Amino acid sequence: MSLAAPATAEAQPWRDARQSPDRRAAELVAAMTLDEKISQLHLQPDAEHQRFVPPIPRLGVPGFRIANGPAGMGPADDKPQKPATALPATMALASTFDTGLARRYGRLIGDETRALAHNVSEGPDINMARVPRNGRTFEGMGEDPVLAGALAAADIRGIQENGTIAEVKHYAANNQETDRHGIDEHIDERTLNEIYLPHFEQAVTEGHAGSVMCAYPKINGVFTCENPALLQDKLRDDWGFKGFVQSDWGAAHSTVGSANAGMNLEMIDGTWYGEKMKQAVLAGQVSEQRVGELLLPRFRTMFAFGQFDHPPVASPLPTAQHDAAAKEFAERGMVLLRNEHAQLPLDPGVKSIALIGPFATRAKTGGGGSSAVIPTSTVDPLAGLQQRVPGAVVTLDDGSDPARAAALARTAEVSVVMVGDNEAEGKDRPSLALDGNQDALVTAVAEANPHTVVVVKSGGPVLMPWVSRVPAILQAWYPGQQDGAAVAGVLFGDVNPSGKLPITFPAADADTPANTPAQFPGVGGVATYSEGLQIGYRWFDAQGRAPLFPFGHGLSYTTFAYSGLAVHNSGDGATATFTVRNTGSRAGAEVAQVYLGFPVAAGEPPRQLKGFERVSLAPGQARRVTIRLDKRDFSVWDTAAHAWQPARGAFTVSVGGSSRSLPLQAPLVRR
Fold it and tell me: Which class for 298: exposed (0-12), middle (13-18), buried (19 or more C-beta within 10 A)?
């Protein structure tokens, strides 16, 4: 039986906050018994908490609570479940191309996670959208590692500003839900390092994420949670990660293998890191020293984030302030896909609106699964429109009968049709097509009323066979709890849309890189990444295939022009300087994008995003923009050297408003 030690800095030196987090963690682990160490290696759900590691009172170790993410503080399987602000889906955040806004988004999540007395927010989710039908596409940040890496780093810094630990996930290449617990992804070394790892590196090296979640799949035959090449060689040795690695729920598959690879915390009730760990220690398969080493990163992180000295304590949420932020985030993330004849913004003097569709009846607060947030409140679409145009008659129809909806549309000045999907963790979509009668509904309403606006609430791309029949399409993603207010604000021009697509919208299901059974969902438990570097817009460019809407696309209620591109080598990198001018009649923001074309011998896709900047301009205003490219931007992964190597030769720098709208080009030779 252990006797309780006095809680003094002399008897328990790890309580001395003047010491470094590393030293405090080492002192604490040295004072623990084997059973105490093992108790801290896995979750131990109780009557109130599922994602929970209990405290050790005698040592002053606080309880450790993990919350779901990444679009708000999820319920964490707590009982009773706690409401929080349901933010727009992370895909909407990616559409902003705005690191400053991403940091504010993260700060709100971190603040609410701490206010609801949790230590960790499981997010952001930054897996690449290799398969647009992936059921968790809505949780991610699109198909480009440069975009995802920049926004993830900012989001993480925001989450962690007040001492909440961010947990970037799912490391690595967790790109489908079908067979997710055992799928073996065969990915060549170059593709893995150029497409599926750089954004995780940025999350660690620039975002300084305190935690990384290892994922379900195998990569080249090895489960990620017991993969030393990923957890030790890449994450810790190459990237200098100092935090802890936690498994996805049930993603651990071994005791010895996971311990040796460096998985620090098992997110389930001790299947591998409980009694089996103790038996492994007693049998000499895992040393007690190794058990202590597994604890050090989490304790060090908790000390560094102040969670020992100032554990999170429940406090009220500033709901009004966070509602306003959620509305702004949703508005800024919406993408205006089409706007023929200036259909939008709508005239605030409109007298009658037909509000139609299955996604018009209630707020779309998010997708399904562990990321779902119980909202503190909601603004439904009808309420949002009525609040914005109180003088108009807004009539709601759920769209279940297209003929009835068309009849209503004929009586209104404007028809707003809201369609979408319901993505969820645990399953992939059978098709990118809208389910049920939604396509027929849009067609019928558009034929009945030429002033029809379609608002799409989806987690990723959807097919639009009716695209040429409607004058305006607004991609709203999953807008979160302020759905109705945010959509109304954009439709009526209170907000000038500035979002850009972080993922390509294909014209057909077959128009995606992973379009064979061997690629997705896999054959015999193996998914072969034979498309290599050609993911998303890279594939469309390489194949000469026209997308429905390209990566980076997004319209505005004003117009922009680009001019004056000057490109120069600068040290190990280069600079691209150009002018963006607002050529329209109202203030707006443009996301200027810089793409790089490599020498043919490098074997890269035709163009790759390397930098971007959001530029806000008054009517007629112009701004000179400089985007810097570093040595890594001009490098490729060398499989012989197992390292990045600079490419040499003639590059092409392209600048514009999307991957398919690049009016400025200039050569650049790298020797």
Answer: buried
Residues 54/333, Cβ–Cβ less than 8 Å: no
Tell me the residue type at 472.
Answer: A
Residue 4: is its pLDDT beyond 50? no
**Whole-number Å distance between alpha carbons of 432 and 232:** 38
Give pTM, 2 decimals.
0.96
For 496-607, list the strands marked E by DSSP: 526-528, 560-570, 573-582, 588-597
**In this model, does residue 269 exceed pLDDT 90?**
no
**3-state SS track over 610-627:** EEEEEEEECCCCEEEEEE
Q: Hey, what are 213's tokens?
A: 């979640």
- Catalytic, 248? Answer yes
State the DSSP H helix or E strand holding residue 35, giving kind and residue range, or none if neither: helix 34-39
pLDDT at residue 666 tops 70:
yes
Active-site hit among 248, 439, 511, 541: 248
Give the residue from 628, 624, 627, 626 showing the smallest Cα distance to 581.
Answer: 624
**C-alpha span between 56 and 44 (Å, rounded):** 13
**Rg (alpha carbons) of the chain, rounded to whole number:** 26
Tens-digit pLDDT profile for residues 54-94: 999 999 999 999 999 999 998 767 778 889 999 999 999 99
